[in-house]
Specification:
Elements: E1 3-7, H1 12-19, E2 25-29, H2 33-41, E3 56-63, E4 69-79, E5 82-91, E6 103-108, H3 113-128, H4 135-147, H5 165-175, H6 191-195, E7 202-207, H7 214-244
Parallel strand pairs: 1-7
Antiparallel strand pairs: 2-3, 2-6, 3-4, 4-5, 6-7
Helix pairs in contact: 3-5
């Protein structure tokens, strides 16, 4: 059984400083529209169809001579006149902003030093070979989740030398002889499944409540009002039909529903 340890009162920087170590898996939940698409798609993995906390995964490789922890990840990173699309190394401080990454986890699967060296080396090899980030494979996984397709089979949109974030983590772990989620193909692996791995592990979790965006609140209010009106019209229509079914019955004017625009 996994051991989940909830942390409170820490900044993202303090959380990583306390728990980051070579070979551990990092998970984050972001708040961009892409993150929301991924979190919503992962609801098919939950029996109650709750959206996932997790939208990105990466491998922690340890502290370097510059005093910073570094990660190996497959990501799409866009800056002014500069785009990196694929497996890359970054300082963990890219995840320090709590307004962007409100939920964090670090997962320790109890690797041996030899296993840790093997998987970090495998990740660095993919960095050196410029393995690509696969939007196509990510789409294949999202479609498979929506359709409820078996994901022990190869991703229909699989490409050579390409990985999205959680697929990269699963792949490098397999090179060390560790299958984090048996029965799921590497290129179908989601961040949510890494957090639910049946392999014994310790998971440190830092979770904050995020204020609902104003636009989202407004849209939910509009949806609620439309649904209330739709149900009211349906009730009146049912009453009219029931009254009309009685011989010689007059239909009260109050029961005649207004025309639908």
């Amino acid at each position: 059984m996994p051991e989940i340890i909830r942390e409170r009162g820490l900044t993202n920087e303090e959380f990583f400083a306390r728990h980051a170590a070579p070979g551990r898996v990092g998970l984050v939940g972001g708040n961009t529209w892409v993150d929301r698409i991924i979190a919503r798609a992962e609801r098919h993995l939950d029996p109650d169809h709750k959206w996932s906390r997790w939208t990105h995964a990466f491998l922690l490789q340890g502290q370097r001579a510059d005093g910073h922890h570094w990660v190996i990840e497959s990501d799409l990173e866009m800056q002014h006149k500069y785009i990196r699309l694929g497996v890359q190394e970054n300082r963990v401080d890219k995840f320090h902003d709590a307004s962007v990454y409100s939920t964090l986890a670090i997962v320790d699967f109890g690797l041996t030093p030899e296993q840790t060296n093997t998987l970090v080396s495998a990740g660095l090899d993919l960095v050196a070979k410029r393995a690509r980030y696969s939007l196509r494979e990510l789409l294949g996984t999202l479609v498979a989740l929506r359709r409820g397709e078996a994901r022990d089979r190869e991703n229909r949109l699989a490409q050579e030398h390409s990985y999205f974030c959680s697929a990269l983590v699963h792949q490098v772990y397999r090179t060390a002889g560790v299958d984090l989620f048996p029965g799921v193909d590497v290129k179908h692996t989601t961040p949510e499944e890494l957090s639910r791995s049946p392999r014994p592990h310790t998971q440190w979790l830092l979770e904050r409540e995020v204020a609902t965006p104003v636009l989202t609140t407004m849209l939910e209010s509009v949806r609620h009002k439309v649904e209330v009106r739709r149900r009211a019209r349906a009730r009146k229509r049912h009453q009219v039909e029931a009254a009309a079914a009685k011989p010689g019955a007059d239909i009260p004017h109050s029961l005649v529903p207004p025309p639908i625009p």
